[in-house]
Task: structure prediction
Amino acid sequence: MLNSLQIESYRKDGYLVLEDVLEPEQLATLRAITEEFIERSRLHTHSDDVFDLDPAHSAGNPRLSRIKLPHKQHPAFWKIVRSERVCSVLTSLLGADVRLHNSKLNTKPPGGGAAVEWHQDWAFYPHTNDDLLAVGIMLDDVTLDNGPLMVIPGSHCGEVLQHTANGVFSGAIDPHDPAFDVDRAVALTGRAGSMSVHHVRTLHGSAPNLSDRPRMLLFYECGAADAWPINGNASSYTGLNQQDFWDALQERMICGEQSLSPRLEKVPVLMPLPPAPDCSSIFRIQQSSGARSAFV
Result:
């Protein structure tokens, strides 16, 4: 459970770093499973529903940008987000009823692991209210030189910046946007087993990993159960009938119960459309849209 000062800091700055959230045994298990997935990726030559491959990936030198939806790939990843320590953080910030929106494991290999351009998660998935956040569980030591997550403190209280390029949703802001002040950026570093938290509207990004060490970071995007996705649940838009949509909500519940009363707040919303030519991951969205890089 977070204390009042930590909660106040999150509300003010839009992020937290919490040390030693994982027990050593939990960390060792997640690292071993992740290494097994990296070994499996040697047999793959193209990105698919599990692996997002780095352009330099090969059987002899496996390099992943991401393991997609790890909570669906191995039960240990679902178990960890529902563990007592992680749940206590989530409920302190989001209330008793918490639903998983998405998960991903960004592996960021050494010697050039891909950057993630500056963006706000809210631009990808607006909801009826913004009680959503992302936790990043550090499976490696995260330092200034291996591509740490960086945030702009207080940016969650401001506007939603444009995330478009060349007429499509780019999943990245223009680094020359006058509202973007990179000099205020804070790097979220910590020992393996620690955890970062950032608000869904917090502006963040991460540079390439130019060190000789990996930087594996396990992300869970979570929200209050009364925050409903604005893109709706009508089958004509989602392709899901009502039962399938309800089942999908239920299977994502981390703790508590799914609310049937969306909480409507006055929050700024820009829909993430039209789509980029390749919208299979944030890396492909940013690349295929021609987003301008802040890290060149």
